[in-house]
Amino acid sequence: MSRRLGLLAWLLPALGACGDGNREARRSQLGPDPTLEQRMAIADPAAGASLYGPCSACHTIGRGGPDLAGPNLHGVMGAPIGHRLQRYGYTAALRSVGGDWTDAAMDAWLASPSRFAPGTKMNYPGMADPLERADLIAYLKSQSR
Ligand code: HEC
């Protein structure tokens, strides 16, 4: 048992190192200013999973997981923005955005939460890389069953 754990401890960082799903190779398939649709067409949920680490400081994502500083994110894609979980206290800033978490809305939110919903309490600066955002959106979509 402890030998197995030892092996895991050795394997996990090795897996992490190749967890970007060949992002640079995929990036080279895109033109200089790809649309969200073009990015989503080559997005990789497994590569997105390896970008989720910073989010997990404030969000669980498993079905039925607890809210931390931020709400549990299971099934968030397609759900109403800032109105999905009755039990969670969303800010008026996020509640008043309106609409659903489409790819486009999530892309804008992840790029800059404070620009998307000025006054939000999600204290996260944003993710600058458009392909990383697409990978993360693909991962969020995969966490809905
Ligand atoms: C420092 C804590 C923190 C970090 C880090 C963080 N969040 Fe959040 N997140 C929050 C809080 C707090 C809210 C609620 C915002 C509000 O009500 O204004 C939120 C809201 C959200 C929502 C809206 C959920 C809904 O039900 O409408 C999504 C989606 C989300 N976060 C995704 C992410 C992702 C993806 C990451 C990682 C890139 C991330 N967050 C990083 C704290 C955080």
From TrEMBL:
Q: Which InterPro entries match?
A: Cyt_c-like_dom (IPR009056), Cyt_c-like_dom_sf (IPR036909), Cyt_c_1A/1B (IPR002327)
Task: Give GO MF terms, alphabetically.
Answer: electron transfer activity; heme binding; metal ion binding
Q: What is this protein called?
A: Cytochrome C
Q: Coiled-coil region(s) at which residues?
A: none
Q: Which residues form the Cytochrome c domain?
A: 43-144
| Keywords recorded for this protein, A-Z | Electron transport, Heme, Iron, Metal-binding, Transport
Q: Name one Pfam family in it.
A: Cytochrom_C
